[in-house]
TrEMBL record:
<dbReference type="InterPro" id="IPR027417">
    <property type="entry name" value="P-loop_NTPase"/>
</dbReference>
<feature type="domain" description="Sulfotransferase">
    <location>
        <begin position="132"/>
        <end position="366"/>
    </location>
</feature>
<dbReference type="Pfam" id="PF00685">
    <property type="entry name" value="Sulfotransfer_1"/>
</dbReference>
<keyword id="KW-0325">Glycoprotein</keyword>
<dbReference type="InterPro" id="IPR000863">
    <property type="entry name" value="Sulfotransferase_dom"/>
</dbReference>
<protein>
    <recommendedName>
        <fullName>Sulfotransferase domain-containing protein</fullName>
    </recommendedName>
</protein>
<dbReference type="InterPro" id="IPR037359">
    <property type="entry name" value="NST/OST"/>
</dbReference>
<keyword id="KW-0808">Transferase</keyword>
């Protein structure tokens, strides 16, 4: 391990990538090949801690703290931090300030931060598997929160960015999809979430072709609140967007709902659910109340864990309510005071909407809500 100690000393001294890389070229590479093999770029491993904010609090001795076991190397927490640094740089190249890449960056960070707690078993004993469960919807109902809360469970492995396989990348094939999944062992289940699946016509049939036993989770909330939340997200990226009322109603009135607007169509849950029930029996679905996921997350998580056949690990004790944002944060370790909160876009403030417009939308959705309650056997008590 002499070479690793020397490289660690280079980094400790503040040498830049080129200086450390030059040193490596003077010695035998064999001892450090397992280190940089996982990243593809030596400078990702040997980057100066001075210029890498993710590693500034890491001790030099930790940088190459690897355990050798039958010629396999187990990486420690620094590995995930270095990967996170690579994500930061990639996002900067693609202008992470834009909405799309900011979301990608956030989701990737959450995945890697979660992986820091899962370093006990060697990756050599893990494989990438097609998902056992999919959160298929619904957009702006709490799907990201649910996935991050489930990720705390030791028997759950979850994707970071949404794969969008069944609606956008189906032609890539199942092997492409499998490679998007996280590593997991035989005792763990794999979960992905892509909310647009619920409303995309071809997806249910395609999911069935992958697996007739996959478990499907649907997070729903009051469709009026969902529509306003959806609009708020778009408006945060487009300052020239028309007012909500002008988008939701025909001819700028508050009487005729514009049913061609995607934001409105998504909330007609019964219509989308009909398509899914043509391919899967009701018992393969679990429905999560988006409202209760915020108000009582522990209760909803206990139901989801039961549905997935998991032991009840995530409970009310794991949650701390963030009053300033009106959103729950989660404790990954009950013995720690540290909590994990979703990024700042969650719990975004909604714009003011004319009460007359809200009433008209509630009248519009009411019969569809009633039909949805009947289809799934659950009353969500939306007005």
């Amino acid at each position: 391990m002499k070479i690793l100690n020397k490289v660690s000393q280079c980094i400790s001294a503040g040498y830049n990538n080129d200086a450390a890389f030059s040193y490596i070229h003077k010695v035998n590479h064999d001892e450090i090949k397992p280190v940089y093999r996982d990243f593809g770029h030596v400078d990702d491993i040997l980057g100066s801690r001075i210029h890498n904010r993710n590693l500034q609090n890491v001790k030099p001795s930790e940088v190459f703290n690897f355990q050798k076991d039958s010629n396999n190397y187990q990486h420690n927490k620094v590995t995930s931090l270095l990967k996170l640094n690579d994500i930061n740089r990639s996002a900067n190249v693609k202008n992470r300030r834009t909405g799309k890449y900011k979301t990608l960056l956030t989701e990737s960070k959450e995945e890697y931060h979660s992986n820091l707690t899962d370093t006990k078993s060697s990756d050599s004993h893990k494989t990438k598997k097609l998902p056992n469960a999919i959160i298929i919807g619904v957009k702006k109902c709490g799907t990201r929160a649910l996935l991050e809360f489930l990720r705390v469970h030791p028997d759950v492995r979850a994707t970071g960015p949404e794969p969008h396989f069944f609606d956008k990348h189906y032609e890539e094939g199942l092997e492409w999809y499998r490679q998007k999944m996280p590593l997991s062992n035989d005792a763990q289940i794999t979960i992905e979430k892509t909310p647009s699946y619920f409303v995309t016509k071809e997806v249910a049939r395609r999911v069935l072709n992958m697996s007739k036993d996959v478990k499907l989770i649907v997070v729903v909330r009051d469709p009026v609140t969902r529509a306003i939340s959806d609009y708020a997200q778009v408006a945060s990226k487009r300052k020239d967007l028309k007012p909500f009322e002008a988008m939701a109603f025909v001819d700028n009135s508050t009487t005729v709902v514009d049913t061609t607007w995607t934001v409105i169509k998504i909330g007609v849950y019964s219509k989308h659910m009909q398509k899914w029930l043509r391919y899967f029996p009701l018992e393969q679905f679990h429905f999560v109340s988006g409202e209760n996921l915020i108000a009582n997350p522990g209760e909803e998580l206990e139901k989801v864990q039961q549905f997935l056949g998991l032991s009840t690990v995530v409970t009310n004790k794991n949650f701390v309510f963030n009053g300033s944002r009106g959103f729950p944060c989660i404790k990954k370790n009950l013995k720690s005071k540290r909590v994990h909160c979703l990024d700042g876009t969650k719990g975004r403030k909604h714009p003011h909407v004319n009460p007359i417009a809200i009433k008209r939308l509630r009248d519009f959705y009411r019969p569809f809500n009633a039909k949805f309650y009947q289809m799934v056997g659950k009353d969500f008590h939306w007005l």
